[in-house]
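Request: Mind sharing a record?
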Amino acid sequence: MKKLLLITLGTTLSFSTLAANLQWNNVEPGYSYQQPTSTTYTQIGNQMIGSDGSSATRIGNQTIYQDSQGNRSTCTQIGNQIICN
């Protein structure tokens, strides 16, 4: 089952190139849940690396997410909207 990552504004994870802060949520049909709060994230340049093996890389207006199982999703910011596939 493919998992998508949604972004909501106003939380604690951020990239220096993105004014809004980012929160990761795994989404399965009918369910939405936040990544465990025990996961810590380290920012190295344009990449955020999670202690659980997840990561996010910011390139221009796109962010490429990879969860700890290796599933990837790309999100594009257009104005104040973030669209993920």
The longest strand covers residues 72-78. The two ends are 14 Å apart (CA to CA). Confidence is low (pLDDT under 50) at residues 1-33. Strands lie at 4-7, 24-28, 31-34, 41-44, 47-50, 55-59, 62-66, 72-78, 81-84.
